[in-house]
Amino acid sequence: MKTNLNDLQLAYLAGFIDGDGSLIAQIVKKDDYILKYQIRITISMIQSTSRKHFLIQFQKELDTGTIRDRNDKITELNIIGHLTVQPLLQQLRPFLRIKLKQANLIIRICEQLSSTKNDPIKFLELCELSDQVANLNDSKKRTVTSATVKKTFQDLGLIKE
Amino acid sequence: MKTNLNDLQLAYLAGFIDGDGSLIAQIVKKDDYILKYQIRITISMIQSTSRKHFLIQFQKELDTGTIRDRNDKITELNIIGHLTVQPLLQQLRPFLRIKLKQANLIIRICEQLSSTKNDPIKFLELCELSDQVANLNDSKKRTVTSATVKKTFQDLGLIKE
Fold it and tell me: Do the bridges between strand B74-80 and strand A66-69 make them parallel or antiparallel, or are there none, so unpaired?
């Protein structure tokens, strides 16, 4: 990822993300993980596929991210993973307004994610922060929440009732 | 309208408009006008009503625009009229990317609008530019296009076939 974006580029991107982007913390089932779940951090920007070239321009400018056609009309640019997202959000933070709360929560998650890999209590705390991000995003399609993770941890005896 | 927005504010707003705003040139029926139609120029930004306070913040920052609840979920900030929109778009232009074409077309319309009030041929040219803006906006709900205006002008004998 580029770390030398100037303030005008960052202000523009912050505006774009505030308008049409998403800052996402998703709890994902991972059967081969000790804690059975992973928190996937994503910055997502979408555009009509006919304007895909603008997303490619953002991708080049950021020097990171993956372009994906969601269907024949919508294309998305996804920047996935806390190691990439955290430093970018740190740079964007001074310019974000509408999604500043999500950014702050996600930065907190990113900061602690590495140290919670085998710690169910701490991991659950980060899942609760992910719930808060989802609430701010008006997210309605979530199937896995911190409650799901808590139930699994209880069933596995990783935490007490 | 404020004319002393700094480059960081303009870059942010350009990003926001590129993401979620609309630059609109709408042909509106006006029975009491000599040419029977008006071109209404609008910059529109929408947000969930629960985040209306961000639109109010934009309104204060720009020192212009009208806040309107579209329904109980969606609120919009509209900046209407070529005299207000043109100077703002001139300032935003260096920072716009995705909606730059719309901005350039609308600036052309604004520049000529005053001089076409009673000139059907010239007015029709601006209606055609409005069609181009609508096409760039993937607008599907338009009922009045330059073709409608042309037909009216022909029926009224304002232009030849």
Answer: unpaired
DSSP codes joined into one string, B107-149: HHHHHHHGGGTT-HHHHHHHHHHHHHHHHHTT-------HHHH
Interchain CB contacts (distance < 8 Å): A and B: 71
Tell me the CATH number at A76.
3.10.28.10
Range of B150's domain?
A: 7-155
Name the token pair of A142: 């979530």
Let me know if residue B160 belongs to a domain: no
**Using 50, 70 and 90 to split pLDDT, how confident is the model at A2?**
low
A12 touches B at CB < 8 Å: yes
Tell me the nearest-neighbour CA distance from B29 into chain A, angstroms.
Answer: 31
Q: Is B56 on the interface with A (CB under 8 A)?
A: no
Structural domains in chain A (count): 1
Chain A residues with beta carbon closer than 8 angstroms to that of B62:
none
pLDDT of A1 > 90? The answer is: no
Cα separation, B109 vs B157, whole angstroms = 24
Residue A20 designated active-site: yes
Give the model confidence (pLDDT) of A99-151 as tens digits. Answer: 999 999 999 999 999 888 889 999 999 999 999 999 999 888 888 999 999 99
* Mean pLDDT, residues B76-89 taken together: 96
Task: Report the range of poorest mean pLDDT among A157-161, B7-11, B33-37, B133-137.
Answer: A157-161
Does B1 fall in a domain? no
- The answer to whether residue B96 sits within a structural domain is yes
Residue A117 and residue A88 in contact, taking contact as beta carbons nearer than 8 Å:
no
Q: So what's the ipTM on this one? A: 0.93
Residue B161 domain flag: no
Option in B20, B48, B57 nearest A19 (CB): B20
The answer to whether the Cβ–Cβ distance between A18 and B18 falls below 8 Å is: no
Is the Cβ pair B11, A16 closer than 8 Å? Answer: no
